[in-house]
Amino acid sequence: MATRKMILDLDTGIDDAMAIAYAVAAPDVDLIGIVSSYGNVLTPLSAQNSLKILELLGQQDVPVFLGESHSSTTTQFEVMPISAQIHGKNGIGEVSLPTAKRQPETKSGVDFLIESAHTYGKDLIVVPTGPLTNLAKALKQAPEIQNEIGNVTLMGGALTVPGNVSPVAEANINQDPTAADQVFESNLNITMVGLDVTLRTLLTKNETAQWRKLNTVAGEKFADIVDYYIDVYKITSPHLHGCALHDPLAVGVALDPSLVSTLDINMFVDTTKEMRGRTIGDPARLTDQHPNVSVALTVNQDTYLKRFMTYLSELFSQN
Ligand code: BDR
Ligand code: CA
After folding, report:
1. Mapping DSSP to helix (H, G, I), strand (E, B) and coil, where does residue 295 land?
2. Closest ligand to 233 CA?
3. What CATH number is given to the structural domain containing 271?
4. In this structure, are strands 267-269 and 124-128 parallel, antiparallel, or unpaired?
């Protein structure tokens, strides 16, 4: 049993699936649960995908919870065509995995977040790699958790580079800018792993070929899933020559912040028309001496990629 406990809050999703693998494989943390969100797919499918990926990785004990099914300011959610293109309609690159033996828990994801904050306090790391709707709801229901949770390392936002769904907005923040702003303006200790660093941390078919060579089900399925994502990146972002490791990088940074250099600053999320979803320094709190957000600006890609491949290859070789 490790001291550090991690909760993933995912819209699973191909890179979310790699985030699960990284969290399972990392030696110095216990993955205590996965909260499901909408985004790349609808929430129930996100939960099923997480359950299937856990099963593929031989993890039958990690509970999966259902989170909110739409943003805090809407009544329903539809998957954006670009998300379906990038992740496939089933969220895992149209790769077929056996129906999961388990079902999501009956407790809500929001209640699980609150109870875990009370139980584990500073040892708890929350890694949201989808919209921030669940975390914002948990904060609203139990504001004390903002002073209990050790750290929230989120994949989302863009400070020094343009957005990926609008000139200013990154996809996860764009799904629910109001919730994201509530999270950024809370007392939570936050690390923002945004497009500034995730677009510099890339995987190619050279790496997925290594998984394929392991001759295991997990190695082959993950190679199929991620190759789909790499093929889409060739169309949507040909200049990158690989796919971005958005979500697994957030898990890596959560466990080892030395992988990135950061700017400590109070942030807010713009919710007004043209700037909707922009993550930027909060003009009202610029002089505050104790900023609560560390924004990742540069990343040691080589160290990260080596670690990513060591962890995942070892895990896939056993499954
Ligand atoms: C983020 O959006 C989602 O599509 C990905 O899974 C990632 O979390 C990248 O902007
Ligand atoms: Ca995601």
Report:
1. strand
2. 1
3. 3.90.245.10
4. unpaired
pLDDT in tens, 134-164: 999 999 999 999 999 999 999 999 999 999 9
**Residue of the CA atom closest to atom 10 of ligand 1:** 171
Q: What is the pLDDT of residues 212-226, one digit of tens each?
A: 999 999 999 999 999
Q: Which residues line ligand 1 (CB under 6 A)?
A: 13, 15-16, 39-40, 83, 129, 155, 164, 170-172, 246-247
Distances (CA, A) of 204 to 207, 232, 245: 6, 12, 10
Tell me the three state secondary structure of residue 298: strand
How far apart CA 227 and CA 207 sit, in angstroms, is 10
Give the active site residues: 11, 246
∠ Cα 249 165 131 (to 5°): 55
What does the pLDDT read at residue 18? 98
Residue whose tokens read 């948990």: 138
Which structural domain, as residue segments, surrounds residue 26? 5-317
Token digits of residue 213: 């060579």
**Beta carbons of 13 and 91 less than 8 angstroms apart:** yes
- Kindly list the distances between the CA atom of residue 276 and the CA atoms of 159, 167, 182, in Å, as whole numbers in the listed order: 14, 10, 14
CA separation for the pair 273, 125 (Å, rounded):
33
* Ligand 1, atom nearest to 14 Cα: 6
**Cβ within 8 Å of residue 40, ≥6 positions away:** 11, 12, 13, 14, 16, 46, 79, 83, 86, 87, 91, 130
Quick check: pTM over 0.90? Answer: yes
- Count of the separate structural domains present in the chain: 1
